Amino acid sequence: MKMVPMRRVIFNRKGGVGKSTITCNLAAMSAVNGKRTLVIDLDPQCNTTQYLLGSNVGKHEKTLANYFQGQLYFSIGEKDIAACAHKTSFDNLEIVPAHPELNDLESKLESRYKMFKLKESLEKLEQYDCVYVDTPPAFNFFTRSALIAANTCLIPFDCDDFSRRALYTLLENVAEIKEDHNAELSVEGIIVNQFQARAKLPKKLVQELIEEDLPVFKTYLSSSVKIRESHDRAMPMIYLDPRHKLSNEFQALYQELNP
Fold this sequence. Notes:
By secondary structure, the protein is an alpha/beta fold. The protein has a single domain, classed as P-loop containing nucleotide triphosphate hydrolases (Rossmann fold), CATH 3.40.50.300. The chain has 11 helices and 7 strands. It has helices at residues 19-32, 47-53, 64-72, 102-111, 117-122, 141-149, 161-180, 200-211, 226-232, 237-240, 245-257; strands at 6-10, 37-41, 86-87, 93-96, 130-134, 152-157, 186-192. The radius of gyration is 18 Å and the shape is globular. The relative contact order is 0.19.
């Protein structure tokens, strides 16, 4: 029987909420736990690519842009998304890098209604156990393609009043994709990020979400300057400092996702 990998999308239309950080660290936890893990960076800003490949960014001929070119043109590009995957320096962890050229391809892909191509490609993958997809901070072609291709989505929440107000729109976006394009899609949970336990506002905002019966994960990710070092050194927390509080939190969150 063909085994299709679990596909999770990290989605939020607001920038700076930790999408790339959460994507890379959950994928790293997956890899450390022995899962053959693929990360797909759909954001032309390439933050996730930078996080996992570091100084190797830009040295690869095949990126996600090559894959999407292959969906547009017969004679150029790459039809197989797995052919654009690159190994990281960490066992069991690979990435399909983003590229700024995705910005130029977006309108062409949308006008030719290629939103289902990513889903078709990911459902053919047999060499991975799970796929984590990072999305741009917008509800655009790439984000919709990711949600159409996903089993579930994870929504980062950075304990900010603007994020609180925007959360309903995010849930409506997911419901729209579920209704129109992907009946299997569900919100797996809301990830509380950059949580400050001693501050009143974060506790108040999170409590409001819980009281509304929204699917908030029990594990909260702390605010820590250590994550900056993790970014600078291109090492997710489990590799940089396995005993750090934030590493333990990512481990706990991963266990919630995979009980």
